[in-house]
Amino acid sequence: MPSQPPTAERPLAGRTALVTGAASGIGRAVATRLAADGARLLLLDLDEAGAKAAASDLGGEALVADLSDADAITALDLAGRGVDVLVNNAGIQHVAPVQDFDPARFALIHRVMLHAPFLLAQQVLPGMYDRGWGRLVHVSSVHGHRASAYKAAYVSAKHGLEGLSKVIALEAAGTGVTSNTVAPGYVRTPLVEGQVADQARSHGIGEDEVLERVMLARTPVKRLVEPDEVAGVVAFLCGPHTDSITGSSYRLDGGWTAA
User: How far, CA to CA in Å, does 17 sit from each of 26, 82, 107, 188, 240?
Assistant: First the structure.
């Protein structure tokens, strides 16, 4: 049970939330929102300086680990940290046709984006079961539901993450623990904004045209998703009245998968 009773304004008071990839982008936005909702934060990132800066700003604890390294995940010893909320957000990308895709890079992406969430869930689920409450929210992608060419590792890892979340949801049914995914389209992060600028130069067109004609060609709502929008859905899934929401995927894709 939480040490401080939750309130309408701070529904996660007394809860401990672990967010991966928390130094920037979606992870930083999620951590900021969960802190506002009262959670005590564990901010995990490979970027030590970024994790410490986020922890200083938000009042949490920085954890530094390479999520491609199973031994580094084991060394976190999360079982004794009382994690009530796990947000699997960390991810990387690589683009190449299948015949040219570096197998080592393919395996790396799967270790970070599928194997690591599995190992982290293994560590935190027993404590959640013991306490009778827990929330696992996996930041997936529209690419967990749709494919794009040249993204074999990313697309297959996100499809796997969707499946992992559903399995956890079934196994956790009736325990007070839920597992869901949040699946955004292209999100306004430094990485995506850099891709927009690069494609504008490559195609010889403006950045607005890149968004509409290239990156958002399959998306009816022609704008990037904001990190705070993703954070809002994550916070909702961790909040009150969500005990029956499990095994679901919440798509913030501007209508991409509706077409």
Answer: 15, 9, 28, 24, 15
